[in-house]
Amino acid sequence: MKGMSDKKPPVYVIVLNYNGLKLLLKCLESLKKTRYDNMKVLVVDNGSTDGSVKAVKTLFPEVEILALPRNLGYARANNLGIVYALKHGGEYIVLLNNDIEVVDPYWLNLAVKVMERRRDIGILGFNLILPSGQSQYSSKLRPQEVGEVVFAAAIIRSGVFKATGFLDDEYVIGGAEDLDFCYRARRCGFKIVYIPCVKMLHMHRATFKRIPHNIAFILGSRNRFRHFILNKPLHELFIWIVGAFVGIKNGKFVLRNDVKRFKWLTYGFVVSVKWDGFTGLARLIAERLRRSFIMC
Prior knowledge:
Layout: E1 11-17, H1 21-31, E2 39-45, H2 52-59, E3 64-67, H3 74-87, E4 92-97, E5 100-102, H4 107-117, E6 121-129, E7 144-145, E8 153-157, H5 158-164, H6 177-187, E9 191-202, H7 213-231, H8 234-242, E10 246-249, E11 252-255, H9 261-293
Parallel strand pairs: 1-2, 1-4, 2-3, 6-9
Antiparallel strand pairs: 4-8, 5-9, 6-8, 7-9, 10-11
Helix pairs in contact: 6-7, 7-9
């Protein structure tokens, strides 16, 4: 990793960490292989108690650290890192989970080259390879415009934050913030592109394994319900609902009974009301209406 220069657009790589010392060290070690002349790495530590901050200072003195006094959650902590990066001149912001390992030393050169050529691209997603060897985007085999990418590893143009704001910190722990942000970016006219040639290893949900399954399901249902209400266009809502009862098989319409798809939506509604109350639900609907009329 080299310091900032004037050769290429300045990039900040933000790595969020919470008690993930082993994962973090592997991630940072892989980032050292990056061949890009204008990159800085910022570790945003969410109040870790496992010695992560001390280890980074000792082993990676070139890495900048934003040590938070307590766990602020995924979105809020990342937002603080993004603000820091923007204030320090970052033109591109890479959000990277601590369970990511870089494979190609020239990954950032290619990503920036693509975005410099296409100024309408606001967000670029990479090919995340799971421990099984399969791609997390298994159905996408070529570069293409997509509706959203996961922020386990993604590069975002600084102008996107100026147009859309930051990650919505009302999503609890982590989940759907990236989908929500991608929807807002698209409404402001930015394209989202996936490039499969840039591969990264992803120990999928390594951090979330520490969260009890029932808690993860409860919070995940609430987050998905929030994203569903805030962002899904009415015609997509209609198609999604109809799809529970009508499908296409061999080119013909067939009746189906896929009411299971309503399970998480119903449960998400119940959790949201229990968690936020009907006042919170009213605020959610008001935010949906506000977003419907927002102009970028």
